[in-house]
Please model this.
Amino acid sequence: MALDRTTIPNDLQAFWMPFTANRQFKKAPRMFVGAERMHYTTADGRKVLDGTAGLWCCNAGHARPRIVEAIQRQAAELDYAPAFQMGHPAAFELANRLVAIAPEPMAHAFFVNSGSEAVETALKISIAYHRARGDGARTRLIGRERGYHGVNFGGISVGGIVGNRKMFGTLLGGVDHLRHTHIPENRWSMGQPEHGGDLAEDLERIVALHGAETIAAVIVEPVAGSTGVLLPPKGYLERLRDICTRHGMLLIFDEVITGFGRLGSPFASQHLGVMPDMITCAKGLTNGVIPMGAVLTTPEIHDAFMTGPEHLIELFHGYTYSGNPVASAAGLATLETYREEALFERCAAMADYWQDALHSLKGRRHVIDIRNMGLIGAVELEPMAGAPTKRAFAAFLDAYERGVLIRTTGDIIALSPPLIIEEPQIDQLIETLGEVLDRLE
Ligand SMILES: Cc1ncc(COP(=O)(O)O)c(C=O)c1O
Model:
């Protein structure tokens, strides 16, 4: 029997949900059964405004016809082709289109299936790159406190979110962390904060401790998202870039959430004018519709592997679904939708309106900070005494009941609407959030 889209299963136990309070959810499930443009439809027929582009991924909104048709067509024409030692046109075309919108030095794309896999791939490439050049002692990886780089072992090792790390043993060896950049002087920042650029000098401390000749790469999010939106202080990324260049360490920007227009340029690197050696991306690459990610690299990194006999595999890494045909078709149609509707430019044009609307919440109950950049916003709440995260989670539940999807992490409300959002929808989002804040305990 075909499952009706609106059928609610009567047993919710088998599905162990990711990053979810399973017991709470299963007592009072929140089910989406449809989505179109800026709205979800719930199982009980209500419309919910998407204030988060799903999980920062549906940048063009939902059910976009070009993407839907491309997936249907590709599935019927060539559903799968082996990813190793065989090719198909869509993956090559997507790589070409991707590097065409990426910052200038990026010339190659390695396809994966998620942001987490993009991170693992970039970390592995960075170690293997140095080795391929005869510099095999460079194996250390440097991340940053509060960083989020997905949930695989490499990613949680360089990542700096305690809850994601502490349950999982000793993690990768040879990893160190920069201090995070979230400092109280920067409260109420609109765009890049004024203070804290010098925190990049922390990298010199780590270099002095371990020796630059042991460090392969430094990975940071240009704007840290999942930890609750931490913006890069002015001059900070530039200094990281300088220090990496000076010491021969690769700089990786994890652009899984900042890629594909979130700040008003294709990538944050372009928006912020700082070029890394590798970019990890996923999410908005296919508008979230089909899992896919990519690592973008410079020719220098790629070419370091292209030596030795030509019949030999150059990089012993890849996934069954790397560059999957249906995902590639979704990616091509997504990039075309962004171009056709000038959605990155649209984000840039909406950013001021968004900023004003968001900061109008200053002074509401429990709000201790608001910050924004592009179409990203965060509203930080004073945690409830003795019950961290509870207040923000209550806000999430109430907003959902009032027809707006927000996301919370710790006691921070993070917003990242699809780039097609209209001004009245921004008003609705912010007004609803204001009402929610007023009602919070
Ligand atoms: C910066 C960053 N890196 C990596 C990831 C992991 O992506 P995925 O959940 O697709 O594995 C995320 C997800 O939010 C992210 O924000």
Summary: The longest helix spans residues 115-132.
